[in-house]
Amino acid sequence: MNNATSIVTFIILSFCLALILIMKKDTLPSGVKRPLALLALVMVAFSFGLLIYSFLANPV
Protein backbone atom coordinates (compact mmCIF):
# COMPACT_ATOMS: atom_id res chain seq x y z
CA MET A 1 0.00 0.00 0.00
CA ASN A 2 1.28 3.39 -0.85
CA ASN A 3 1.05 6.53 1.26
CA ALA A 4 -2.05 7.98 -0.40
CA THR A 5 -4.00 4.76 0.09
CA SER A 6 -3.10 4.69 3.77
CA ILE A 7 -4.18 8.30 4.23
CA VAL A 8 -7.51 7.74 2.48
CA THR A 9 -8.15 4.60 4.53
CA PHE A 10 -7.43 6.46 7.78
CA ILE A 11 -9.70 9.35 6.80
CA ILE A 12 -12.58 7.01 5.95
CA LEU A 13 -12.17 5.02 9.16
CA SER A 14 -11.99 8.08 11.39
CA PHE A 15 -15.12 9.61 9.89
CA CYS A 16 -16.93 6.25 10.15
CA LEU A 17 -16.01 5.99 13.83
CA ALA A 18 -17.32 9.49 14.46
CA LEU A 19 -20.53 8.75 12.56
CA ILE A 20 -21.11 5.50 14.46
CA LEU A 21 -20.55 7.28 17.78
CA ILE A 22 -23.06 9.97 16.83
CA MET A 23 -25.67 7.43 15.73
CA LYS A 24 -25.24 5.14 18.77
CA LYS A 25 -24.74 7.77 21.48
CA ASP A 26 -27.86 6.66 23.38
CA THR A 27 -26.78 3.01 23.66
CA LEU A 28 -23.19 3.55 24.82
CA PRO A 29 -22.41 3.33 28.55
CA SER A 30 -21.63 6.70 30.11
CA GLY A 31 -18.10 5.69 31.12
CA VAL A 32 -17.18 4.89 27.53
CA LYS A 33 -18.76 7.88 25.77
CA ARG A 34 -16.19 10.51 26.72
CA PRO A 35 -12.99 8.55 25.86
CA LEU A 36 -14.44 7.38 22.56
CA ALA A 37 -15.62 10.88 21.71
CA LEU A 38 -12.18 12.31 22.47
CA LEU A 39 -10.52 9.59 20.38
CA ALA A 40 -12.87 10.28 17.47
CA LEU A 41 -12.26 14.03 17.78
CA VAL A 42 -8.49 13.57 17.69
CA MET A 43 -8.72 11.17 14.74
CA VAL A 44 -10.99 13.50 12.73
CA ALA A 45 -8.76 16.51 13.45
CA PHE A 46 -5.71 14.52 12.39
CA SER A 47 -7.56 13.43 9.25
CA PHE A 48 -8.23 17.05 8.32
CA GLY A 49 -4.57 17.80 8.89
CA LEU A 50 -3.53 14.92 6.65
CA LEU A 51 -5.99 16.05 4.00
CA ILE A 52 -4.62 19.60 3.98
CA TYR A 53 -1.04 18.30 4.01
CA SER A 54 -1.69 15.99 1.05
CA PHE A 55 -3.20 18.86 -0.94
CA LEU A 56 -0.26 21.16 -0.21
CA ALA A 57 2.49 18.57 -0.58
CA ASN A 58 1.27 17.14 -3.91
CA PRO A 59 -0.05 19.97 -6.08
CA VAL A 60 -1.86 18.86 -9.20
Tell me the span between the first and last alpha carbons: 21 Å
Whole-number average pLDDT? 90
Order of helices and strands: HH
Number of strands: 0
How many helices in DSSP terms?
2
Helix content: over 70%
Structural class: mainly alpha
Q: Strand portion, in percent?
A: under 5%
Rough shape?
elongated
Radius of gyration: 14 Å
Query: Segments where pLDDT lies below 50 for 5+ residues?
Result: none
Largest sheet: none
**Count of structural domains:** 1
Describe it:
Keywords: Membrane, Transmembrane, Transmembrane helix. The chain crosses the membrane at residues 6-23, 35-56. The chain is mostly helical and 60 residues long. Helix 1 (3-23) packs antiparallel against helix 2 (30-57). Helix content is 82%, strand content 0%. The model has no long low-confidence stretch (mean pLDDT 90). It has helices at residues 3-23, 30-57. It has one domain (3-57). The protein contains 2 helices and no strands.
Spell out the key features of this protein.
60 residues, 0% strand, elongated, transmembrane, Signal transduction histidine kinase, transmembrane helix, membrane
Write a brief caption for the model:
By secondary structure, this protein is an all-alpha fold. The chain has helices spanning 3-23, 30-57.
Summarize the SSE layout with pairings.
Layout (H helix, E strand, L loop, with lengths): L2 H21 L6 H28 L3
Helix pairs in contact: 1-2
